[in-house]
Amino acid sequence: MNVGIESINLYAGPAYIPVSTIFEARGLDMERFNNLMMDNKSMGLPCEDTVTNAVNAAKPIIDQLSPEEKDRIELVITASESGLDFGKSLSTYIHDYLGLNRNCRLFELKQACYGGTAALHMAACFVASGVSPGAKALVIASDVARAAAKKTYAEVSQAVGAVAMLISDKPDILELDWGATGYYGYEVMDTCRPLPEIETGDPDLSLLSYLDCLENSFKHYAERVDEADFRETFDYLVFHTPFAGMVKGGHRKMMRDLYRLKPDLIEADFSKRVSPSLQHCVQVGNIYSATVYMALCSLLDNGDINDVKRVGIFSYGSGCSSEFYSGIVTPDSQHKIKQMNIQQQLSRRYPLNMNEYDTLLDLNLEWIFGVQNKTVNVAQFSAMYDHFFAGRNLLVLDKVTEFHREYRFS
Amino acid sequence: MNKEYVLELLKGCITETLDDLDINSIRHDQYLKDLGANSLDRMDIILTVMEKLEIKVPLVEMAQTRSIHDLAEFLLQKKVAVQ
């Protein structure tokens, strides 16, 4: 059976700020700017949360389906490290605002930035199991940065966004190489969200853990897949991209370890096989559980997919769990994703200046986990709202009444 | 192989990555960060020195902040353990 991603879409926020603006305003070391390899960071508004981001990513996919196809969505899994309730999952709100069939499993899972991959593979196994032939699953990875610690190098990469994926036996976007996957996980305290208002950790440890996981999950993949070769098997590589510089480090380590390649050859391979996956990422920043699938969108939008191509995908989530797997994309995958106009959506975002950015950080702080009763005051950020949302039928948060979140379409 | 050998090897790897650094200016009580190495530079330095020593240590074990002196000591112990 062919199983994989039938449709995919990215929602990456209504506003952005150039990373260089944050560096200058915070007095950060500009030498480190180049190592990050980031241009812009996406910002959300107080009328947004992980539910609105998820629905705004998923709705264009759902709108393309016939009523019969839509009714075959029997599973909605949300993956998030920024949930809104300890008990109630984001998927319940999302299911409601997308108008999906009530004969459907709804739940949420988390494992930091690996969550989207965990959800994808659970959904693929459901489809492949044949327990409900022809059924589809909607997987949505959706995250928002917690209050950024100002004046840290983490601040510049912490962004907002969601990727929605329809998983089925009609894998127009990515057909999974069934069983071709390697795992690697162990307990480590690298980065975490131990309190509602913070994300914290040791970025150095996280980088090194990411590199260990890349090496060992690929090793496991190679044990399971005859003649798998990191350099030869994959036409393109898609990695979890907290910032593009980290992907560059990971790729460099693999090419050094496995092939003892010289820097110029590594650089050429990076440009050819990895760079297409980074184009969206450098414009958005880290969107946690959704990041690796933003990178997949970027590859499909920017890669030279003139034939059937094999893609190697590496997913890492702090804590930690990781996976290296592969799949097939085709020119039709590229044709299909272009219908989502992702680059046009990114270009449409409102360009923030530093004052507007700091004001939004403070306003967003009022909407962190646990809001009981509160109404969104659009007048506080009307310039950004009018620019991106007004009249576009996107989902926004209206108010919270006794913890129940109420949304409307703009 | 002794600690002096590993120290000199390590300092060579540091200046390979941080090419504008004078090898004679490196003090053994300094940390890689003090020498201006960012996290990717530190990864490169550690990978290079492990390649030259022909040892393989999980990178997370290298995450603990160590001075040049302590890093050389740690690497030597790992080398001795595999011999």
UniProtKB/TrEMBL annotation, chain A:
<dbReference type="InterPro" id="IPR016039">
    <property type="entry name" value="Thiolase-like"/>
</dbReference>
<dbReference type="InterPro" id="IPR013746">
    <property type="entry name" value="HMG_CoA_synt_C_dom"/>
</dbReference>
<feature type="domain" description="Hydroxymethylglutaryl-coenzyme A synthase N-terminal">
    <location>
        <begin position="2"/>
        <end position="169"/>
    </location>
</feature>
<dbReference type="GO" id="GO:0004421">
    <property type="term" value="F:hydroxymethylglutaryl-CoA synthase activity"/>
</dbReference>
<dbReference type="Pfam" id="PF08540">
    <property type="entry name" value="HMG_CoA_synt_C"/>
</dbReference>
<comment type="similarity">
    <text>Belongs to the thiolase-like superfamily. HMG-CoA synthase family.</text>
</comment>
<feature type="domain" description="Hydroxymethylglutaryl-coenzyme A synthase C-terminal">
    <location>
        <begin position="268"/>
        <end position="363"/>
    </location>
</feature>
<keyword id="KW-0808">Transferase</keyword>
<dbReference type="Pfam" id="PF01154">
    <property type="entry name" value="HMG_CoA_synt_N"/>
</dbReference>
<dbReference type="GO" id="GO:0006084">
    <property type="term" value="P:acetyl-CoA metabolic process"/>
</dbReference>
<dbReference type="InterPro" id="IPR013528">
    <property type="entry name" value="HMG_CoA_synth_N"/>
</dbReference>
<protein>
    <submittedName>
        <fullName>3-hydroxy-3-methylglutaryl-ACP synthase</fullName>
    </submittedName>
</protein>
From TrEMBL, chain B:
<feature type="domain" description="Carrier">
    <location>
        <begin position="4"/>
        <end position="79"/>
    </location>
</feature>
<dbReference type="InterPro" id="IPR009081">
    <property type="entry name" value="PP-bd_ACP"/>
</dbReference>
<protein>
    <submittedName>
        <fullName>Poly(3-hydroxyalkanoate) depolymerase</fullName>
    </submittedName>
</protein>
<dbReference type="Pfam" id="PF00550">
    <property type="entry name" value="PP-binding"/>
</dbReference>
<dbReference type="InterPro" id="IPR036736">
    <property type="entry name" value="ACP-like_sf"/>
</dbReference>
